[in-house]
Design brief:
The chain has 235 residues and is an alpha+beta fold. The chain folds into two domains: 83 residues, Elongation Factor Tu (Ef-tu), domain 3 (Beta Barrel), CATH 2.40.30; 143 residues, Threonyl-tRNA Synthetase, Chain A, domain 2, CATH 3.30.980.10. A hairpin with a 3-residue loop joins strand 10 and strand 11. The chain binds zinc ion.
């Protein structure tokens, strides 16, 4: 995990790395990276590699066969090249705030209504959460957002730690999430908002809840049967 720089430091904006492979003149794998690949409901980072004074925009980042691959929009990079990487911080920081807000809302929805979360998609303007609440209850949804905003005002920390898989699986509430992880992961990364949420999680988060700002409901939709959907943003 030491090659995946955002896991240990979500605030790292610039780094230096060496190119390990280039495919089709545009898919670049580095020996280490701070670029987050699309996954876990969070879109990839964008940014730029600079090599010998030339900028190579990074337009897509994905994880394939366990490797983080960066797509650049300009050809010319070669194996062994040293690059300076810089991520588009405004975009990433918005995702970190949106993602941490999702932790809060999902844990509150789950605790207060015992609902299952069936989907979560973060975006720059708004983030979507799908869940299976029995009755569509707008007042309840509003009150959960209010609870989340109270927790943000308390400015609780968001703690990251690592734990052997076997030990982590014994923690209450973590099993359903950990079971979604690939079976070959021996060490789990644990993200904790003390007293609120605990998850096995490889994403990027803010360090303390006040950084989220305030969560605002954009829209709540009744998608029929048990299917509910909320969109929120952070201000
Ligand atoms: Zn997370």
């Amino acid at each position: 995990m030491e090659n995946v720089l955002y896991m240990n430091d979500s605030y790292l904006k610039e780094f230096e790395a060496v190119i390990e492979s280039v495919k089709d003149d545009k898919f670049v794998v580095l020996d280490k990276t701070a670029f987050y690949p699309t996954g876990g409901g969070q879109p990839h980072d964008t940014g730029v590699f600079t090599c010998n004074g030339i900028d190579y925009p990074v337009v897509y980042v994905g994880k394939f066969s366990g490797q983080i691959s960066h797509e650049v929009s300009k050809p010319g990079l070669k194996i062994g090249d040293k690059v300076a990487g810089r991520i588009d911080w405004d975009r990433r920081y918005k995702f970190m705030r949106m993602h941490t807000a999702a932790h809060l809302l999902i844990s509150i929805f789950n605790r207060e209504s015992n609902v299952l979360i069936t989907g979560n998609q973060i975006d720059e303007d708004k983030t979507r959460i799908d869940f299976n609440m029995e009755n569509f209850d707008r007042d309840k949804i509003m009150s959960y957002i209010g609870t989340a905003n109270k927790l943000i005002k308390e400015d609780l920390p968001v703690k990251v730690s690592y734990m052997p898989r076997e030990e982590a699986m014994k923690l209450p509430g973590i099993v359903k999430l950990a079971s979604a992880l690939p079976p070959n992961v021996e060490t789990l990364r644990i993200v904790e908002i003390p007293g609120v949420d605990l998850q096995a999680d490889g994403g990027t988060h803010v360090k303390s809840l006040s950084e989220i700002g305030a969560i605002e409901l954009v829209k709540a939709e009744n998608k029929g049967k048990d299917n509910r959907r909320v969109y929120y943003t952070v201000k």
